[in-house]
Write a structure and sequence with these properties.
The chain has 198 residues and is mainly alpha-helical. The protein has a single domain, classed as RNA polymerase sigma factor, region 2, helix turn helix motif (Rna Polymerase Sigma Factor, Chain: A, Orthogonal Bundle). It contains 10 helices and no strands. α7 crosses α9. The longest helix is centred in the middle third of the chain and has 27 residues. The N and C termini lie far apart (59 Å). Belongs to the sigma-70 factor family. ECF subfamily. Keywords: Sigma factor, Transcription, Transcription regulation.
Length: 198
Amino acid sequence: MPEFNAQPASSDGELLFRLSRGDEPAYRLLHDRHQASVYRVALVLMRTTWDAEEVAATAFFELWRKRDSVRLVDDSVLPWLLATTSYAAKNKLRSSRRYHRLLSRIPHDGDVPDHADEVARAMDTLKISADVRAALMQLHPKEASVVILCVVHELPMHEAAVALGIPEGTVKSRLSRVKARLRGTLQQYDPMIEEVKA
């Protein structure tokens, strides 16, 4: 019986080292490994699948551009990518708002097609409520990054701190402030309420 000499998959750390030397195959491997997770987070933050794709692409562009300064968390680039996705989404939304304000001043004929159905279908697959998504959109980019890493992706605070390049205490205080602020807005999702009802 022939033996198969399967090569073990390279770690993110190894791929990042190769990427820092301009190795494009390493970049493609990192992209393929983390693209789905990055896109899911972008889709939660953005209003259309088109915008989510653009934000995800921006995060991977930043991975290439900042390849010498990317922080690994437990030998993974995913936390750094998710934090970058959060910042890219906020920047995209800010520029979209400016663009739409400008468009609203220009008279036009006929209706513009709405992509709400497409977004609704995509959001249904993520099983995230409109309330939660809306609450995330109201956060400052620094706060949103902490929530995405610690709450959505359940990263320990010390790992989120490494990914964001800030002290763990800062992550803890930001998360505490956000939770306190959102407690009223998202009261129906509080597990304590479900325990009382049961």
